[in-house]
Amino acid sequence: MSEPTQGKITFKGGTLVSASGQKRVDLMVEGDRVAAVGDLEISGEVVDVSGLFLLPGMVDTHVHLMDPGATEREDFPTGTRAAAARGVTTIVEHTHARPVRTVEDLKEKRSYLVGRSNVDYALASHVWPESIGHIAGLSEAGISFFKIFTCDTHGVPGLDPALMNEALTGVAASGSRALVHNEDQSITAAAERRLRSERRIDPALVSEWRSREAEVVATASTAASVLTSGARVTFAHVSNPLVLDVVDSFRRVGATIAAEACPQYFILEEAELTEQGALRKFTPPARIRHDADRDAMWQAVAQDRFTFFSTDHAPSTLEQKTGDIWEAPFGLPGLDTTLPFLIDSALGGRITMSDVVRLYSTEPARWYRLAKGTLDVGAEADLVVVDPNGSWAVENTDIISKAGWSPYAGRRFSGRVVATYLRGVKVAEDGRPVDHLGGRFVAPRRADSDQ
C-alpha cells in the first residue's frame, strides 16, 4: 500500500506537552518526522492550533483485537479506527483466540495484518507451558513482550511457580519483557467450586470468584520469580493499592516491576456488578467500594507507584454480554475512552497534562523499547491535537469499537481530541477516524538503554 504524499505541515501557536512539561511553540512536520520546534517561520501547510494542546500519539500496550480469531467481537480495522479517533497511534496487541506462540505464528500474523491497521502496532506472544522454549526465538523476531497467566483464563493455561520461574528466566536471558496477569489458580478454582456448588448465578459472584486475595497471592509469587530471574515484568491491570504494597516491597529489594493502571479501576465500582451484570464482568474485577478507595488509587498515581496506563481493551457486544454470568466473556472496551478519561482527569486536577503524556505515551514506549512517545526533533510525527475547552458526553452510539457500548456511557469528559496524525498523515478529525490502513509493524529497539 502506497503512503499518501507528505509535505511540510506547520502547527502554529499550540501548547506542546511532553512528559516533563509544556510550552507554547510551533511544530513543523516534514514527511513523517518532526522537523523543527520553536518560533518558526510559516512553511508549507499551516494548521492553526492556537489555544490547543499538541501531544505525542498515545501508546497503548495492552490491547486485544481478536484478529485473526473472534472478529465478531473486534477486528484490526475497527479497533484501530477507535484508537485513531481517540488519539492512540501505537498499540501492542495480543489475542487469546489465535495466540502467537512460535516464530511461525508471528510471521503468519504479520503477513495477515498488512493493510489492516489504521495505527502502528507491535505484537505480543503468549506463553503456554510447552512454548517456553520459543521465547528466545520470538524475542529475536521482534515480539514486544510475553503474556503470562498465573491462572487458567480466556482459554490460556496458567503457569505454576516452577513454570513461571522457567519462563521468566527465559525472558530475562532474551532481554525482552513479560506482562503477567496475576490471579492465583488454587484460590480462583476453589472459589469457583464453592460458588457452583451453591448454585450461585448472581453477578456479584464475580468479585468472590476473582477475589482480592487471589490477586495479592499471585502478585507475591510472581514478584519473587521476577526478583530471582532478573526479568523485567509488567504486572497487568493492578486493581488496588494492596497489590502495589506487594510490588513496592519487591522493588525495594531489586525486582524490576512495572505496574499497569487501567481506567476501570479508577471509575467503576464493585457494586455495579449487581445492576449491570456481565457488562461489568472483567478480571480482576472492579474493587472500589467507597470514595476512599478511588482516592487511594489516585494517590498511588501521584506517588509514581503506577508506571503507566493502558486499556486492556477486550470488547464484546451487548448480545455477547447477555445470559449466564458464568459463560459471558470477560472484558471491556476501552480504546474509545482511555485518553478522554485521562484528559478529563488532568483538566479536573487529578493529574497534569504532562502526566497524561508520561503515563500513556512516553513511559509505555520507553518500557517496551518502542521508538514512540515523544515529539522531539527527528521523532516520528505521531501527534494528537486536544481542545481543552471541548467536552464529550459519552453515548453508546459514539463507540467505534465493534462492542458498540461503553461502561462510561452517560459520563461527560472535559476536553476533546480534535485531530490525530500518524507519521504526519491525518488519521482522525473531530472524533471521526479517517480510514488510512497504513499502520506499520513496530519491533522493539535492540539497544536497551534502560538496562
Q: What is the first-to-last residue Cα distance?
A: 37 Å
Overall body shape: globular
Number of helices: 13
Task: Estimate percent helicity.
Answer: 25-40%
Gyration radius from CA atoms, angstroms: 21 Å
Number of strands: 18
> For the residues shown, what is the average pLDDT?
95
Which stretches are poorly predicted, pLDDT < 50 over at least 5 residues? 1-5
Task: Spell out the blueprint of helices and strands.
Elements: E1 8-18, E2 21-30, E3 33-38, E4 45-48, E5 53-56, E6 58-63, H1 76-85, E7 88-93, H2 103-113, E8 120-123, E9 125-126, H3 135-141, E10 146-149, H4 161-174, E11 178-181, H5 185-197, H6 205-209, H7 212-229, E12 232-235, H8 241-251, E13 256-261, H9 264-267, H10 272-276, H11 291-302, E14 308-309, H12 338-347, H13 353-367, E15 383-393, E16 412-422, E17 425-429, E18 432-433
Parallel strand pairs: 1-4, 1-5, 6-7, 7-8, 9-10, 10-11, 11-12, 12-13, 13-14
Antiparallel strand pairs: 1-2, 2-3, 5-15, 15-16, 16-17, 17-18
Helix pairs in contact: 3-4, 4-7, 7-8, 12-13
Name some characteristics of this structure.
alpha/beta, nine-stranded mixed β-sheet, 13 helices, six-stranded parallel β-sheet, globular, 23% strand, 30% helix, 451 residues
Q: What would a concise description of this structure say?
A:
The chain is α/β, with parallel strands linked by helices and 451 residues long. It has helices at 76-85, 103-113, 135-141, 161-174, 185-197, 205-209, 212-229, 241-251, 264-267, 272-276, 291-302, 338-347, 353-367, and strands at 8-18, 21-30, 33-38, 45-48, 53-56, 58-63, 88-93, 120-123, 125-126, 146-149, 178-181, 232-235, 256-261, 308-309, 383-393, 412-422, 425-429, 432-433.
